[in-house]
Write a structure and sequence with these properties.
six-stranded mixed sheet; glycoprotein; repeat
């Protein structure tokens, strides 16, 4: 008779072989180049992947290795970020310019290769250079590996819903003009659903400009909602239908029934929608949540249509429209964001780490930078200065000669400093709007300052909004990790009272969190992935202004916790 330990060995070996057999290598080629499209009465040249907007959807299973050959045929520098992918020991493939790589120059190419481990759900990919992600983006859908199921009833169909933003201009020119003048950039001209603005906009009444999807009555559909907009959070509704949230940022949630979803730039939300209404046509619609007072924004609405099979023609020609929240409906936004909880024991669920190694209290918000020489008030920002942004009074400046990851790996000095503080250098009443334009607080130095942490350290960050220009909801994205959202609130974080509100049992798990307007969010993660990982505001209007920092996570004690060398074709600066 075989020994028990022998049986265990062979059982584990067979399990490992089965796991390897179920994994695959999924290969794609991206040709990034100019594309001429018609939108809102104009013909525009945009940068796109493989001639389509949105770009190609990538479908993989958990455990697969993804290989993407990127050929940059555009006139701009380029990188691709795989938003939300952990990149375990493959940080060279993460993609943010000058953080993990130098850009792919026009006429050059680079191959991204990484294995998708311990994740399933809806993520996405996008350009991570300037504002190119306005049109260079697409869905990245991770299904359970063979033999595994969703932790909810199998849907009849799965539908990617990519919410985007459109300018009747070259987006690189829009950004460059703002950076040159120091002013805020021009607002977008439209929002889009799967690349189409919908029929509320000028020159958009032709059905080809409205996303339409035919559904069967009595079926349940999985909507994979992605906010690919650059600068606006978006409310999303479907007329006459409830939605059940089952995942956010590729992490499963307890089912949460709602008639409205809020998605910040960078976030994804998976909802189940059952077509339980009378046969007809029903608009899906998205409109902005704009929390900053007295700040202009694109206050328009995009919409598509769900059309039931066998719907009467009279209803198809006059779809029902949902009543969307007001643009400043913070109670609805907060209700949605604060009511989500993780599915304890679900696939890839991770409990909250209890021992904390690094306590960080980090202020986020807009500020100013000098226009030039003292007394120069000719720039386009408030008081004739330049708009800026910072975290803990450090306005992040990207390196230009080497990426932070390369400097870390090869021990190159002079690229970054490791002096990012664990708390603001000056304590003040952060959300008191009487501090707006406080000249003693509003100017932050430009520096490439990062936080260095040891492998496997648990980091807790309290992200605190500030009112130096104006309070605002900031969607903050952490590369390389998910984090637990322990609590959210308004006003200044109070450790004595607000820690009592922490959910340590089933908090939502995300990679991007909207820090409440005039408030705070508490997050916690374990730094178990060596490399350089940027944390930044996912509003592209704020990232180039400096609302970012990075974590440099040291190698662990074993080869399996040590970052390998870079690939041979990594772009050089």
């Amino acid at each position: 008779m075989a020994r028990p330990e022998s049986l265990i060995f062979w059982a584990l070996a067979l399990a490992a072989l089965s796991s390897m057999a179920s994994a695959a290598i999924v290969e794609h080629t991206f040709h990034v180049q100019n594309l001429t499209v018609n939108r809102l009465c104009q013909r525009r040249v945009i940068t796109a992947v493989n001639g389509i907007l949105p770009g190609p959807a990538i479908h993989v299973q958990e455990g697969d290795t993804l290989v993407v050959h990127v050929f940059n045929k555009s006139p701009y520098n380029l990188t691709i970020h795989w938003h939300g992918i952990f990149q375990l020991l493959s940080g060279w493939a993460d993609g943010p310019e000058y953080i993990t790589q130098c850009p792919i120059r026009p006429g050059s190419s680079y191959t991204y290769k990484f294995t998708i481990t311990g994740q399933e759900g809806t993520l996405w990919w996008h350009a991570h250079v300037q504002w190119l992600r306005a049109t260079v983006h697409g869905a990245l859908i991770i299904r359970p590996r063979a033999g595994h199921k969703y932790p909810f009833p199998k849907p009849h169909r799965e539908i990617p819903i990519i919410l985007g933003e459109w300018w009747n201009a070259n987006v690189i020119d829009v950004e460059n003009q703002a950076l040159a003048t120091g002013a805020a950039p021009n607002n977008s001209d439209a929002y889009t659903i799967n690349g189409r603005p919908g029929n509320l906009y000028n020159c958009s009444q032709n059905p080809k400009f409205t996303y339409t999807y035919k559904v069967q009555q009595g079926k349940t559909y999985l909507l994979r909602i992605i906010n690919a907009a650059l600068n606006n959070q978006l409310f999303f509704k479907v007329a006459g239908h409830k939605m059940t949230v089952v995942a956010v940022d590729a992490s499963y949630t307890n089912p949460y029934v709602t008639d409205v979803v809020l998605v910040a730039p960078g976030q994804t939300t998976d909802v189940l929608l059952t077509t339980d209404q009378a046969p007809g046509a029903y608009y899906m619609a998205a409109s902005p949540y704009a929390s900053a007072p007295n700040v202009s924004f694109d206050n328009t609405t995009t919409r598509g249509i769900f059309i039931y099979e066998n719907a009467p023609s009279a209803t198809v020609s006059a779809p029902r429209m949902p009543a969307l929240p007001a643009f400043n409906d913070t109670p609805t936004a907060h209700k949605f964001n604060s009511n989500l909880t993780s599915l304890v024991g679900g696939p890839h669920w991770v409990p909250v780490p209890r021992h904390i190694d690094e306590h960080m209290y980090v202020t986020v918000g807009l500020g100013l930078a000098p226009c030039g020489a003292p007394g120069n008030n000719s720039c386009g920002g408030p008081n004739g200065q330049r708009l800026s942004a910072s975290m803990n009074n450090a306005s992040f400046q990207f390196p230009t000669t080497l990426s932070i990851l390369q400097a870390f790996f090869f021990n190159v000095r002079g690229i970054y400093t490791t002096d990012f503080p664990n708390k603001p250098p000056v304590a003040f009443d952060y959300t008191n709007q009487n501090n707006s334009m406080n000249q003693a607080l509003i100017f932050a130095p430009k520096k490439t300052s990062v936080k260095k942490v040891k492998y496997n350290a648990t980091v807790e960050m309290i992200l605190q909004d500030t009112s130096l220009i104006a309070v605002e909801n900031h969607p903050m994205h952490l590369h390389g990790y998910n984090f637990h959202v322990l609590a959210q609130g308004f006003g200044n974080f109070n450790p004595k009272t607000d820690r009592k509100k922490f959910n340590l049992v089933n908090p939502q798990i995300r990679n991007t969190i909207g820090v409440p307007v005039g408030g705070w969010a508490a997050i916690r993660f374990q730094a178990n992935n060596p490399g350089a990982w940027i944390v930044h505001c996912h509003l592209d209007v704020h990232l180039p202004l400096g609302l970012a920092t990075a974590f440099v996570v040291e190698n662990g004690p074993t080869p399996s916790s040590t970052l390998p060398p870079p690939p041979s074709d990594l772009p050089t600066c």
